[in-house]
Write a structure and sequence with these properties.
The protein is α/β, with parallel strands linked by helices. It has 8 helices and 10 strands.
């Protein structure tokens, strides 16, 4: 693996570990629990699921030794997992040729925001999330926790240059839509095509100039006069809902 794809990362929390146990137990190298873990029904359920899938369970009183961030709400359980969500640019191109909805984050550096974005993407049927190699939050245990483990349902592609990659997507007839608070065009006045790439910018700064210039269209989510803008994860959730409502990218 490259430096962009670590051999494994440490995740923590009941929901993230449960998601991996349910959907990809083979990606888990080991589960770690504090000595008192297993007394409650949800805890016993997870341990039984791990045993059923032959996942090693180890007792560890100090989670910082295995990579859990100090002060994290780990709920007494952690796991080391392979980054099965990683996707190469070539595989992303193949996926895009089949249509659907995709998301790019332009320099979103807050891991909590990135995790919330991934959770929204999983909820609304987004196939892949594209991140720039530099000035972006990395996929860490904090991001996985913020996503409630839903990252297992998403592919993540890291690209060296987001502007150049957007140009490649446009050559494949992908519609590139940027979210921008200064656009005159409202979100619901746009008819979402497929395939489509929705691009969101960093907190405060929004989309960088060249990224904004690269978009085929820019859309604004109107807010009440008292509120200047939405958090990036909230804005993406609203935009994704509208795209799904229009184009039925997902089916129940």
């Amino acid at each position: 693996m490259s430096e962009l794809e670590p051999e494994q990362i440490t995740i923590w929390g009941l929901h993230p570990v449960e998601e991996f146990l349910k959907h990809s137990p083979n990606s888990i190298s080991a589960i770690f629990v504090i000595p008192s873990f297993g007394r409650k029904k949800p805890q016993k359920k997870l341990l039984n699921l791990a045993q059923k899938n032959n996942v090693p369970i180890k007792t560890e009183p100090n989670f910082t030794k295995i990579g859990v961030v100090a002060g994290a709400v780990h709920q007494g359980i952690a796991a080391q997992v392979k980054p099965i969500w990683m996707q190469t640019a070539d595989n992303l191109m193949k996926a895009i040729s089949q249509g659907g909805l995709f998301v790019a984050c332009d320099q979103v550096t807050d891991p909590q925001n990135l995790g919330a974005i991934i959770r929204a993407c999983a909820a609304f049927g987004v196939k892949s999330v594209i991140l720039p190699q530099r000035s972006s939050a990395k996929i860490t245990g904090t991001v996985v926790k913020a996503s409630a483990g839903t990252i297992i349902h998403i592919k993540v592609c890291i690209v060296q240059n987001l502007v150049k990659f957007i140009a490649k997507l446009q050559q494949k007839k992908v519609a590139v839509i940027g979210l921008s608070g200064d656009s005159s065009k409202l979100l619901w006045d746009y008819n979402f095509p497929t395939p489509a790439l929705l691009v969101a910018g960093a907190e405060g700064k929004g989309l960088r100039f060249l990224v904004k210039k690269s978009c085929d269209t820019l859309l604004r989510i109107p807010c009440a006069p008292e509120v200047e803008s939405l958090n990036v994860s909230a804005a993406l959730s609203v935009a994704l809902y509208e795209a799904v409502r229009q184009a039925a990218f997902i089916t129940e």
